[in-house]
Amino acid sequence: MLPVLITDAEFARFQHFIFERAGISMSPAKKALVSGRLSKRLALHGLESFGAYFKLLSDGHHPDEVQMAVDLLTTNETYFFREIKHYEFMRTQVLAARSRPTPWRIWSAASSSGEEAYSMAMVLQDCMQTTPWEVLGTDISTRVIAGAQRGLYSMERGRHIPPDYLRRFCRKGSGEYEGMLLVDRALRSKVTFRQANLNTALPELGQFDMVFLRNVMIYFNNDTKREVVARVIATLKPGGYFCIGHSESLNDISTAVQMVAPSIYQKPV
After folding, report:
1. Distance between CA 255 and CA 37 in Å, rounded?
2. Which domain holds residue 131?
3. Could you report the per-residue pLDDT of 82-121, keeping only the tens digit for each?
4. Considering 139, 188, 209, 214, which one is annotated as catalytic?
5. Is 251 inside a domain boundary?
6. Last residue of one domain, picked from the residues 45, 74, 103
7. Which candidate, 117, 33, 105, 122, places its Cα nearest to that of 79?
8. For FRET with 35, which of 49, 54, 133, 217 sits at 20 to 30 Å CA-CA?
9. What beta strand segments (E) does the chain contain?
10. CATH of residue 38
11. 13, 37, 143, 226: which is the annotated catalytic residue?
C-alpha cells in the first residue's frame, strides 16, 4: 500500500489546528514531520486522506484522538543535563539556600519526557541537607507525561548524567531492559508531573524559586511568546530565576525579569 501524501491545503489545516491548541507556529518545513507523525493514525482509523483525519478531529466526537494528535505534534526530543550551565547555576543557588526552612521549588515548564525534571531532582537531592525540595514537570502532552512518570529511558539519553549521579540515582537495565536506565524510585517519588497548556490560563501551581522554560519559545510567534512568558514569570517568587534556551531571547518579549547571565534572568525582589 502506497503511503498517503499530505497536500498543502491539508497541512495548512493542521498548522491552524496546532496553533489554536498549543500556540505553536509550524513552518512549511514541518510538513514531512506532520505527515510522518500522523500517518499511523490514518491507518488506525481506516482513513484515506489527511483531510478525512482532520474532519474526524473536528467533529467533536473524538476528544481522545484530538489529544493524541496534539501529543504527536508537540513532542520534542530531549536528554538529561541538556545545557549544563543552567544546572551549574542552579547548583550554586540551591547550595546558598539549603539552610532555609521553606521548600526549594523548581518548575520544568515544558518537561517533555521528563529528563529535565529528573536532572533538576538529582542536583537538589545531591545539594540539599535538611531543606525540603519539590520539582514539578508539566507538558501539554499527556502521553509524554505518562512516560515521564515511569522514569525509564535509553542509556543514550543519559549520556550526560555525571557518573556519580548515574550510580546514585539510576538503575541499569538488564534482560529485556538491556540498554535502558530507570530513575531510582526514591527520586521519582519526589518529582510530580502534570498536564498543562502554557498557551492557556495555567492551573494553580504555586510559586517557584526557579523555572526552566527552554527550547520552547522557538515554536511560538512573538505575541504568543509574550503571553506565555508573562504567565510563567507570574509564578516566580520575587528574586526567583528564569532560564530559557541558549538560542532564545527575551528581547521585545518581557521586561519583568532582568538578565544575570546569558539565558538566565531574575525577577526583581
Report:
1. 37
2. 84-266
3. 999 999 999 999 998 888 888 999 999 999 999 999 999 9
4. 139
5. yes
6. 74
7. 117
8. 217
9. 104-108, 133-139, 152-154, 170-172, 180-183, 191-195, 208-213, 236-244, 258-261, 264-266
10. 1.10.155.10
11. 37
